[in-house]
TrEMBL record:
It comes from the Eukaryota. It comes from Saprolegnia parasitica (strain CBS 223.65). This is Uncharacterized protein.
């Protein structure tokens, strides 16, 4: 039962003041309580460290103005050879790496044997270093990750393209590619001819349902 409101004006004013103060105190207590409360997502966000952004500045060089002069400089005059250049997809690379490093990225799939740095520690640098070692083993002087592999004889170049196909078909890599938009690839590849002209490789797409990793 509510108490009867006093009938005199002074008593009414005093009662109203008391009610206002009581409401303000209750509101302050409620705000303090709400300030301490967090949703499960907010609590998880507070406990998890801030996700580091993937810095890919400088991962792609201008093919004609920057990469080609350095490839030419690396190639000996008496054996210019063929060069394989990479232009990485810096938009989807973070998505790909997140999928690679996810606890259940490939279910029961095992990372490829050439991946020396394993999930959850795979980075753009470790991925490209390990990949380039797989594409042309024991030839550190010919590898400039993540940019190019040069110089190469025709036989070496053919072996690199064959190794790219094996990397592309790996089930673990294909599982990570599923996180990216369907028509996107991880990198475009180009070759530099003996006359130092840059051409897209125009590699054949793997048979369905495999995703194209390298264009």
């Amino acid at each position: 039962m509510y108490q009867e409101i006093p009938t005199t004006i002074f008593q009414q004013e005093a009662s109203m003041d008391t009610l206002v103060l009581a409401k303000e105190a209750a509101l302050g207590k409620m705000q303090a309580t709400l300030g301490k409360m967090q949703t499960p997502d907010e609590e998880m966000s507070a406990k998890m460290p801030a996700k580091q952004a993937l810095h890919m500045t400088g991962c792609n060089m201008d093919l004609v103005d920057e990469a080609l002069p350095e490839v030419e400089q690396d190639s000996e005059d008496n054996e210019p050879g063929l060069a394989l250049l990479f232009k990485w997809n810096d938009i989807d690379m973070p998505v790909f790496l997140d999928a690679v490093n996810a606890p259940a990225s490939g279910g029961n799939l095992v990372p490829p044997f050439w991946m020396k740095t394993l999930p959850p520690n795979v980075s753009f640098t470790s991925l490209t270093n390990d990949l380039f070692e797989q594409l042309k083993p024991n030839a550190a002087d010919d590898r400039v990750a993540p940019g190019w592999i040069a110089p190469n004889t025709i036989e070496e170049y053919g072996a690199i393209l064959a190794a790219l196909r094996e990397v592309e078909a790996d089930p673990f890599i294909q599982a990570a590619m599923a996180a990216m938009p369907l028509d996107n690839c991880l990198a475009e590849t180009y070759h530099v001819t003996l006359s130092h002209h840059i051409h897209p490789n125009d590699r054949h797409a793997p048979p369905p349902p495999l995703r194209r990793v390298f264009l």
